[in-house]
Amino acid sequence: MVPDSQASVAASGTSTAGITRVLVADDSRLQRKILVASLKRWGFEVVEAETGRDALDKCRDVLPDLVLSDWMMPEMDGLEFCTAFRDLCGDQHYGYFILLTSKAEKEEIARGLESGADDFLSKPFDASELRARIRAGDRLVAMHKQLSEQNAVVQDTLTELKSVYDALDRDIANARKIQEALVPSRTGDFGKGRVSLLLKPCGHIGGDLVGMFSPGHGMVGFYGVDVSGHGITSAMMTARVGGYLSPTHPEQNIAMVRRMDRFFALLPPGEVAEMLNDRFTMDTGVEEYFTMAYAVVDQSNGRMRAIQAGHPYPMVIRADGSHEFVGDGGVPLGLMPNVEFAEFEVNLSPGDKVLFYSDGFSEATMRNGEMLEQEGMSRLLAKCDLSASGVEILDDLYWYLNQCLDPEIGIDDDVSAALYEFNG
């Protein structure tokens, strides 16, 4: 029983930030009356139960924040009620459980803790001790409520983010289809020459682009582009470049010009690079730039004119299997206006090949921690069967690249290549 001298506790002395609803379970009517009176004076909402089973039924209606339960009760004792109460609460609710008992043995206390009790109050008890134990429980219940509210906010945020990410995934999937449409075919035959393409984005969408086109009359143009960065912005840049170099709409392709209203011809590579550079440097707010290798081949005589605007040095593979790196380096497109791009020429003989490749090859990290670079490209090429088709050669190059990569890094950049074969 609570002594009268200590029964009065100021309501302001007990925080109810966590505990608002209290369940008192005791088969002693007098004990319940004393506890209920004190709790109500402290500002709590109180529910009474005479047995453990009755208490559990009331918990099913509304779960309390605090339970004061006698250990010894008919039908269902305090330990059984505590276990059932914990099962009823699950992970969504936390109620502080205090067992009222006259037991003091360590074994009995251990049984109570194993059943899920948080604290014990020995009979007889006084108001100050009860208030102190409720304060301890209040802090825990308040913390759990706060965590539950924060978890609810986090869960709502995660649900919202998932919805946003799902929408982004759908957009990226559609963007990938659009980007794939920029390279409708991996190979193209142009009479005396053939172009084969390889495009392997390191993500869902990439910043590399390869392409080919021909106005006929024995002229062929092919290119490789690598936009700075990765992701959506780079992919949008490649879409713009692909639109300027359309293989199916020559009137929209800035590399082609109509002659005498009868046919299309290919403009010199340097002029094409300058036009692309002017268009992209005029766009304010666009910080991305791109490297490019672009060549025009006159298949009547094997003369190739090309530009290398910051792209890795092209490889010319001769019919006897020897090869050389060609080009003049150059400045990437979109960095600064009014740039002149110097052309270089290569005379091709029947059986010769020209390979454009992105820095996804040359700057890939090998098992020894070094980049592949030109020497590594030469080693990869030496492993390929150069008598195979262009697509097979490109696929072999990509496969051999994967075999020598640092496994912890892998492919960390878009990989692309364009291979021109001159049959003469």
TrEMBL record:
Q: Which Pfam families does the record associate with it?
A: Response_reg, SpoIIE
**Ranges of residues in domain Response regulatory:** 21-138
Please, which domain of life does this record's source organism belong to? Bacteria
In the record, biological process GO terms are:
phosphorelay signal transduction system
Keyword field: Hydrolase, Phosphoprotein
> Which residues are annotated as modified residue 4-aspartylphosphate in the UniProt record?
70
Against SUPFAM superfamilies, the record matches this protein to:
CheY-like
The residues that cross the membrane are: none
- Gene3D superfamilies attached here? 3.40.50.2300, PPM-type phosphatase domain (3.60.40.10)
GO MF, any single term: phosphatase activity
Protein's name in the database? Chemotaxis protein CheY
Source organism: Pseudaestuariivita atlantica
Taxon lineage: Bacteria, Pseudomonadati, Pseudomonadota, Alphaproteobacteria, Rhodobacterales
